Amino acid sequence: MENKRGQIATFIIIGVVLLVSIGTYLYVRGAVRSVSGAAVPNEVAPVKIFIEKCLKTSGEMAIRETSLKGGYYNIDLIQDLVFIPSIVPVYYSYNDTGDIFTVPTREFIQGQVGQQASDLLKDCINNFTDLQGYSIAERGNASIKTTLATDSVFFEMDYPLKVNDYEINSFAAEVSLRMGRLYSIANNLTMGQADAEFGICLTCYARAAVENNIKFDYLVDDEGNYIVIMNDLEKEEPYYYLYALRPRQFEQEPIPVVQEAVVAQRGEEKLGIESIVAQRAEVGKEFVYQVKTIPESTTTGLVFSDETDLFDINADGKISFTPTEAQKGIHSIKINAEADGLKTFAFFTLVIE
User: Fold this and answer.
1) Number of domains in the chain
2) Distance of alpha carbon 297 from its chain centroid, rounded?
3) Whole-angstrom distance, CA of residue 299 vs CA of residue 332
4) Among residues 187, 212, 246, which one ends one of the domains?
5) Are residues 292 and 312 in the same domain?
6) Nearest to 277 by CA among 258, 294, 260, 295
7) Domain range enclosing 272
8) Which of 19, 44, 60, 98 is the most exposed place for a label (fewest CB within 10 A)?
9) 226-277: per-residue pLDDT in tens?
């Protein structure tokens, strides 16, 4: 009898151990995996999700803003500046000594994006005031590593925190903007400047545009600087990357150019919009521009229209409006034309300062 009681007691102990083990296993299985892939307990998962959402939002803002400045955040590091339409670094220049290349490295740009993302993150987290019911203590400073892949930018952050009784330190986010691709294109095109006798290699830019689904526009200032505006057409919301070139000069004043517009054709009839160079407008001053069709176009019942909230083009192709402060920035404008059943369109860049 004593032996049976001892056996029963042993089985009870084993059973308790098994129950505890199974409970622990089920609890761990119930943990939530965040963007970084690291499992966190359900109790503190909202904190990690909140921080990674802030990391992604701040990262996207940093990508967009540094892209408008050729990959720079700290403008004090830019040695050669062009101030139109914003602070734009000169990637290439030519003088009596030859070609001068000053393209920032990929590693440098990754650091600049990470630095700006880190600064923006502080405002987004806002001392965790939006997170109620948690005891959150910092155990160290946040450190962000940024990686420019071809079609995405990855952010990995080490941020030691103690949330309630748990320690969390790994966070991650992915932003689907093609900064890495646009940087590589800009770098390759800039390096090709050494082979350009004058100006820029238009066929090189046209090929890059078609192969990567991007659109190029250019602004040429009074000193012969080309400000290159790259517009990624993969995204519904415009995403731009800007840089500048100071190439060898033509004997005559350089003419700013854009991609050719699409020409619609039916038999011998044609309809096309004349290419529109990138335009500048000022807040508070009336902007006027007359859109025209190519000379060989049919004009029977010709009507123009636009796809922008900035202005309304009239049926004859005249654009007339006064920009407001809220409209400042770089805008990609689509203009449509229709005549005798033929339809076509053209894009141009409008910079409102």
Assistant:
1) 3
2) 37
3) 26
4) 246
5) yes
6) 258
7) 263-352
8) 98
9) 889 999 998 888 899 999 998 876 544 444 444 555 788 888 899 999 888 7
